[in-house]
Amino acid sequence: MDPGLVLVFSVFCLFLLSLWRQRSGRDKLPPGPTPLPIIGNILQINLKDMRKSLTNLSKVYGPVFTVYLGKKPTVVLHGYEAVKEALVDYGEEFSGRGKSPMPEKITKGLGLIFSNGKYWKETRRFSLMTLRNFGMGKRSIEDRVQEEARCLVEELRKTNGSPCDPTFILGCAPCNVICSIIFHNRFHYDDQNFLVIMKRLNENIRILGSSWMQICRFFPGFINYFPGSHNRLLKNISEMRTYVLEKIKEHQASLDINNPRDFIDCFLIKMEEEKHNQESLFTEESLVVTVSDLFAAGTETTSTTLRYAFLLMMTHPDVLAKLQEEIDHVIGRQRIPCMQDRSNMPYMDAVLHETQRYIDLVPAGMPRSATCDIKFRNYHIPKGTTILPSLSSVLKDNKEFPNPEKFDPGHFLDESGNFKKSDYFMPFSSGKRICVGEALARMELFLFLTTILQHFNLKSAVDPKDLDTTPVTKGFISLPPKYQMCFIPV
């Protein structure tokens, strides 16, 4: 037979096999658009704005539907009721981490963010306990955040009211808080190692938010066989881990098991306790990945939220004026803000909540997976199926938040001006895989923003009417556009 005909026939057979496999697995899954072989529903998804694409599909197929992002099905949860039912009511069944080719290549199933099963449960339990012992959510860590806020103010004074890009400075503060917990020390803002770390973290978050990374997520083969920004990401992470490993070696040389100084010491002590356990999950490799996860997650999310908050303040001068009026009334200009002040500052509380709601930092949420075969709303979801909880659909719900595309602190205030809680506020996700650092992030956002507004007026380097608050990407993470601003001492 002619070789060309053999090739065509083989391709045709593979096409039919792919089509049959997709059809055979769709019978009991939630409804969804018909996928094409190999590429699935990629042509129906805007990778630059997945939120909008998923919202449009939910209007056709309902709050629980299936899309094929490549060859495998992903069950999408859209709207508060579906997300809450899955992540809270079926918390254990939906507590797995969905497969992501790039993170899997990087972490090898270790760490806090992309691990699963017994390893994830034990690592998360240990990390939460250790972070709490070092004061997360308590007065001791509040002292560290207050000190970092003071350093941040001094650094901002050095700008002398001149236009500057706040990205680096606003990233330094939360990074230093994490460093104090992990390494037992903070960096000066001009430290060369610190500058390199911040550069890599900023570059990594831009790469992860790119459309190319979304394509790699759906087509894993691209990672191994095609050039692209993912190679730069891998290089940055490798260099970061080399630095973390050096810190671990320093800790091992000076470790006092009776006086642990930080997270690394506690992990090393746990490793020593289990050194004779052949099945111990506490290894040096696991420590490197876990520390790297805490480092990245604890820096970028908070700094990006702060950066977005300042942009929103400049485009809403009335909000900024009310905030500073409340700060003057409750705290004044001399006393250091503390977490106890928050209960007396309903407008600041509302602004912080509205900022997180409005910016919708991680639109699609981190992918989950089914830990077992589940019957959910009369649909059969097999074990291992990727679950995508659309946090955007909750944060932008137009019944809970009238005019959700508008930045309005009134979404979290009652008629008397008191702070109003909402079950729809899920920027940290929900259920068993809710963000480990939620308490720390809330503390940092309040103390950093309040302290800065206590000492500075914010001024845009351009006419505020020309500022754009539209995210530059809405893929994995929503990043604000670049801008310059002036910090004018009060």
Please explain how this structure is put together.
This protein is of the alpha+beta class and 490 residues long. Helix content is 52%, strand content 8%. The protein is built from 17 helices and 11 strands. Helix 6 packs parallel to helix 17 (438-455) and helix 13 packs across helix 15 (346-359). The N and C termini lie far apart (85 Å). Residues 11-22 have low confidence and may be disordered.
Give me a quick take on this structure.
The chain contains 17 helices and eleven strands.
Helix-strand sequence:
HHEEHEHHHHHHHHHHHHEEEEHHEEEE
Q: What is the count of β-strands?
A: 11
Question: Low-confidence segments, ≥5 residues, pLDDT <50?
Answer: 11-22
Q: Mean pLDDT score, rounded?
A: 88
Strand order of the largest sheet: 1-2-7-4-3
The end-to-end span amounts to: 85 Å
Question: What is the number of helical segments per DSSP (H or I, 4+ residues)?
Answer: 17
Largest sheet: 5 strands, mixed
Rough outline: globular
Helix content estimate: 40-55%
What structural category do the secondary elements indicate? alpha+beta
Radius of gyration from the alpha-carbon trace, in angstroms: 24 Å
Strand content: 5-15%
